[in-house]
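Researcher: I'd like a structural prediction for the single chain below. Treat it as a standalone chain; there are no partners to consider.
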Amino acid sequence: MTGRKSAISKKIPKHILNYCLVFIIILNIIFFIDPHKSFSSDSGIEENSELLCDIYEFEINNEDSTDDYINVSAESAIVMEYDTEEIFWEKNSSKSMYPASITKILTAIVAIENIDNFNEITTISKNASGRNNSFFRFNTGDEISLIDLLKASLISSHNNATIALAEYVSGNVDDFVKLMNLKAREIGAKDTFLQNTNGLDAEFPDHKTTSKDIAIITKYCLENILFKNIVNISEDVIKINDEEIEIFNTNILLKYDYIKGVKTGYTKNAGFCLVIYSEKDDLNIITVILNSLNREKDVLNINNWIYNNFKYTEIVNSDNIFKTIKVGDISKIEIDLYPDSDFTKLINTASDEIYLEDTLINNFKLPVLENQVFGTLDININGNSEKKLKLITKDPIEEPFIYQELSTENERRTRKILFFIIAFYFFVFTFIIIRNLFSRKIYE
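Model: Treating it as a single chain, here is the predicted structure.
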C-alpha cells in the first residue's frame, strides 16, 4: 500500500497541483474584474466612425430661397445688415455719386446733436426764404420751431428748412457744412464730400458720396431715437406763424409695415435715389439705391431677395448632444459630448455651405469631470472657419457603467472563452475527484 501511494505522489507532486489551482484562481479573478482588458486589444476612445476627426455637412432649410441674381436698374446700390454692418449685396457701392436729398439725413443728425431745445422758435432769414424746389415756401421773418424744421427737412424734404437749421446751429451754411463733413469722416464715411445742406447739385459738382458711405451714415443716424421716429412718419402737421401746414413723406414705401424710413432724393444729376431701413423676420437691413430708373421697384426687388435668402440659423445648440463616444469594445461606457456654447449665424440659405468638424482627444482617464473638455468643434462656412467651440461633458462619471454589447464576432469570441473556462474547470474537478478516489483506495 505504501509503495503504491508513493508512486502516485511521485507522478503528481502536490506543489504542482497547488500551482495549477493558484493559476486558475488568478486567471478567473482577472477575467471577472475586467474581461475587456483580458481579451480585448483596444482600451482607448472608440467613436462610431472609429476616427478622431469627423466632418459633417450642416443641412440648410432653403425652401424659400431664390437664385443669386437681382435685377436692379440703379447705377449704384448696397444692402447692409443694420446690427453687424455685414454687406449682403452691392453694386458699384464705392463709386462716387450725387446723393440728392439723401444729403438731408446728415444735415439732420448734425443739427440734432447740436440743439438743446427742439421746441425753441427760430426766425426764417432772407437766405432761407423762398420755395427752392420745395412743397411750400418760407417767407423772411416766418417763425417756426426747430422740431418742425427737422420734420419739414426729413418728411417733406424741404430744401430751405435745412438752410434754416444750419443757420441756427452755426450762424451760416458754410460752417455747418464743415461740421457735416467732419461728422462723415468721424463715423467712417471717408469717401463723402458735401458742399451744401440739401443735396441740390446744379452749382455744386463736387457734392458727392457713395452708396456704401450712405449706408454707414444711415446706420449712425438711426441710432438716434428722434431721427428714427421722424423718418418713419408718413404724414404730420407743422406750424409756421401758428398756421398749420400738413406735410407728407416723400417715401411712399412707408405703406409697407416692415419699412421704417428713411429718405428719398432726386436731381437731374443724381437720378432717383432712395435709402430705406426695414425690419422683418428678425433681420434689420439698410438698402441704398442711387441713380435708379425705378427706385421703389429696385428696393423691393432687393429686399424680397434678401428676406427670402438670408436667415438667422441656429447651427449649434449647447443643450443638444453633439456626439456620443464610447469607451471600450465589449463593455462600453457612453459619454455624451456637448458644445460649450450656442452658435447662430446669418446665412444665405441659397448658396452658403456649412460644415462641422470635430477633433477628439485620443485618450483619457476616469473619472470624467463635469465640463471636462474632450475635443473641439470647428464651424466652417464657405471654406472659412467662423467659430471654434469646445466639446465638453455635462455629467461627471465616477465609476464606469458597463453593459454588454456583443457584435456577431464578439459573441463568437465570448462563447469560445466561456467554453474554454467551463471545459477547464470540468477537467480540473474531474482530476480532483479521480485523485481523491485513488487516495482513498491507497489508504484502504
